[in-house]
Design a protein that fits this description.
By secondary structure, the protein is an alpha/beta fold. It has eight helices and twelve strands. Helix 7 links the parallel strand 10 and strand 11. It starts with a strand and ends in a 14-residue tail after the last helix.
Length: about 300
Amino acid sequence: MDPVLLHLGTPARGERWQTLLPRLVPGLTVRLWPDMGDPAAITHVAAWTPPDDLFAMLPNLAMVFSVGAGVDQLRADALPDHVALVRTVEPGLVVEMADYATLAVLALHRDLPHYLMAQRAGQWAPQPVIAKGARRVTVLGLGAMGGAIATQIAALGFPVTGWSRRPRDLPGIDCRHGADALTDVLAISDILICALPLTAETRHILNAATFARLPRGAAIVNMGRGGHLDQVALLAALDTGQVAAAMLDVTDPEPLPPDHPLWRHPRVVLTPHVAAETDIDGGARAVAAAILAHRAGTLPPGLVDRSAGY
């Protein structure tokens, strides 16, 4: 049975993948939603947010691709155990995420929210410059994205601590792991970056208790998922000064309602989920590599360990 991939997403990506993927994977056919043909012929699906009932319609489904680095939006609990779940982490995506984190860290390190407030008020209000070596940065999540972020930030001269659920080893990074280590990590975090996957365990990990454990005046960068952040708790921490500023690329919901206070908070920099975007051709190459690895009986790049909650 030749493989058939059903693509759900932008027409530009779908049309390009329909041409490119069969060149990369011999025998592969790409169909574009909603023109799926015989559901029994579909062996692979590539999507961001597929219809809730789609997977149940595909009896020969073998692999599902998220067209981005996240998988929480895919409702993976609806997938049978034998179906492989793969996140698309192509090199350009990793680079863009690390660049956004660098932008955020430098903006917060050099007090950009303060200067934006001063500009709006017509005030000339210089702040003391703190040496990079004295500004401690912590990255929550040390997977492909978080590891690249931590490495790039450390290369700029910031002391970087990385935290993950499982042990990691990255040159130049103070790597810590496990729930017991998180409290100690927060206490030494002047800038806290969230690059975690969103799971039941990480939802609202950026909460009032987390903010209380940070040094007073710390800053927050959330570039994981909006669900990582308790937005009410952040607003409260900003108002007390426990958190000095925040840079947010993700919110819950997206976009925020027009009257949401985060839009206009003077110490929040808000961007519309633009930290990174999967390159169309790079995404196709990543999907092809995973299909070919699966066909060869080897571990597909980007395979999600569903037993570990992503």
